[in-house]
Fold this protein.
Amino acid sequence: MISDEKEVIYSFLSQGKIEMADEALDDIWDIGPRATPVKIAPITWHENPHDKYWRFIFYGLRPLSNLLRAYYTTGKVAYRDKILEVLRSYNAFEVARGDREHAYLDDPHTAAFRAMVLVNIHGKFSRTNDLPADVAAGLRASIEKLGFFLEDERHFEDGQNHGFNEAAALLTIAVNFPEMREASAWQALALERLERLMVSTVDDDGVEVENSPFYHFYVLTFVLQDSKWMDRFGVPKPPGFDAQVARMFDYATYGVQPDGLVPLLGASVKYNASKAAPEVYSAGALLSADDEFGLIPAFNFVRSLGKGGVAPTVRNKRFDVSGQGFMRSGFSSGAEFKNDTYVTFNVGNHRNNHNHADALGITLYTRGKSLLPDSGLFEYGSIKAPEPFPVYFRSTRAHNTVVVDGQDQNRKP
C-alpha cells in the first residue's frame, strides 16, 4: 500500500474495502450499511435515491477510496482504470455545468470531502505515474474550482463540525497546489477558520458544542489529524489550536460507557471508542505533544477497557459549560471494567441544531447492559427514515426525562 503524504489529511480517505471496490467495477456504488447499494451506469451526476446521507457520500466521491485502496493493495489496474473513468466523467460534467448551481455537488460539506478525495488521488497517482495528462489537467481545474467554492464564506459552516472539514479541505488544496494563484490566501483563510472553530465549537472545558459524544469524537479525530499533518509538513498552526485539542480528551474519557460504546446522547450513532481509528487513538499514536493537560493516560485507560493507561481518580464529572454529567461506580481494571455502573445526566442548554430536547435526561448502564438507553440520532431523513421519525428522535418524549403536557422542551438556552 502506498504511504500517505501531504495529499491526505484524514487517514480514512485512503482506506476502504476491496469487496466494495469490486462492486464499483460492476457500476454498483455501495456507501456502507446506512444505505442500499445503487447500480449506476453511466453516472449522469444527477442521481438521487432520496437519501441525504447517500448523496453526501456519493457526491463527495468517497466510494473512490475503496478503489484507491484496492488498486494499491492488489495492483489490479481495473481499479485504477475505474477511478480514471469516473474522474473523466466528473471533470467533463464540471466543465459543462460551468457556474450553474448543482444542489448535490454544491453542498459545502459534500464539496469539502470531494476536494480532499480529488487531492488524495491526484497526489498518489502522480507519484506512481498513474495519472494521464488529460485527467491531470481536468483534475487540477476541478480542484481549483473547489478552492474558489470553499473560499466563499457562504460555503463555510462556522460553529459546527462541518466547518472543520471545509477548512481542512481548503488547507489541503493550498498546501498541495502552492502554484495556484490563490493558494497562499487560501492557506491563511483555512488556518484562520480552524482557529475560529476551536473557539466557537469547543468550550473552555473541552466539550464540542453539539453535546453529542459521537460528534465530540468525530471532531477530535479530525483535529488530531489536522495537528499531526501540520507538524509533518511544516504548516504553521493557529494559536491555541493544540491546547484546545488537548482539552477535548477529558470529555472523551468520561463520555464512554464501560463497554467502550458512547451513550447515544443527542445526535449520536453507534460508535465504539475502544476500537475506532487505532491510527489516531492507540497509545502508540498519541504522543506527549498531544497531552498538554496530562489527560491522555486516563483516556488510554478507558479506551483500553481497563487494560492500559492510568485509571482516572475522579468518578463523577460534570462539564459546566455543556451541562453534561457522567457518574461511575468506579474504574475497575481488566475483565471487571465492563461491569462498572455508568450514569449520564444532562442539565445543559440547547446550544446547537444537533442538540436534542433532552434536558434532565438520564441514561443508565450497569454490568454489561444499557438499562436506560437514549435514542440517539436515528437518521437525518431518507427512505429508511421518513417523517415523523427524525422529528420524534429529537423530541423530549424520545428521551429519559419529564414530558409536560405532551410538549417538547423549548429549544432555546
Summary: The longest strand covers residues 324-328. The beta strands are 28-29, 38-39, 316-319, 324-328, 342-346, 362-366, 369-372.
